[in-house]
Amino acid sequence: MGVDIGSRCVWCGVDTSAGSGHWVNRLSVGTTGDTVFWLPTELRSEDIYVDGWSCAECAGYECDECGKQIYLDEDVTDLDEMGHYHRECLPVEEHWSEAGETCGCGLHEEAN
Ligand SMILES: [Zn+2]
Ligand SMILES: [Zn+2]
Ligand SMILES: [Zn+2]
Prior knowledge:
Strand content: 15-25%
Shape: elongated
Largest sheet: 3 strands, mixed
Structural class: mainly beta
Bound molecules: zinc ion
Oligomer: single chain
Strand order of the largest sheet: 1-3-2
């Protein structure tokens, strides 16, 4: 059995329909009811298929510093290329980038 949650984000429940402010970069997601924390209890079963969306905030990585979600593709990587951070959460000199370039996060102007 499945449940149709319309345009809502399966992870945070935000409305991702056009005009909601969360439509850009949303991704189609299929998951099971037990992973969708905001569903009513009776639908929170791994036997229930949930067809919905992931907003761009939820589709990105979780920040290794503050633990909050990072907007899709706006994370920066540390020098080990292992972690993912908000650009503000990692000291600028620890942002990974191609040799001779900045990582493109916009916080490197003073280094030029
Ligand atoms: Zn979301
Ligand atoms: Zn952070
Ligand atoms: Zn940077």
